[in-house]
Amino acid sequence: MGDVRRRGAAEAEVGECIADGAAWLWHRVERRRTLAEMPAAKLGEVRDCSHARQSLSETRAPCRTMPQAQRPAL
Question: Are 19 and 25 in contact (CB under 8 A)?
Fold first, then answer.
């Protein structure tokens, strides 16, 4: 991570990390951000599309058994 610091990560306007959303991974990202001396406000964490779609699908699953009239409220 020293290399990222030497490349000027702390002075970057914005940084972005795209990953699958696993908690252990985001803890690692936070550790590396700290080591790179990059302010937290400058780093965006983005879940990749396929994993985001999977999470949304799991979230919508209860809707399948719900009466049609109740779905919009959910």
Answer: yes
CA dihedral 53, 54, 60, 62 (to 10 degrees): 180
Distance from the Cα of residue 6 to its chain's centroid = 25
Give me the domain span that covers residue 52. 2-70
**Distance, CA of 63 to CA of 56 (rounded, Å):** 12
User: How does pLDDT run across 22-49, given as a tens digit for each residue?
Assistant: 888 888 888 888 888 889 898 888 888 8
Q: How far apart are CA 71 and CA 9, in angstroms?
A: 45
| pTM for the whole structure | 0.57
Q: How many domains does the chain have?
A: 1
How far apart CA 72 and CA 17 sit, in angstroms, is: 33
State the DSSP H helix or E strand holding residue 26, giving kind and residue range, or none if neither: helix 23-35
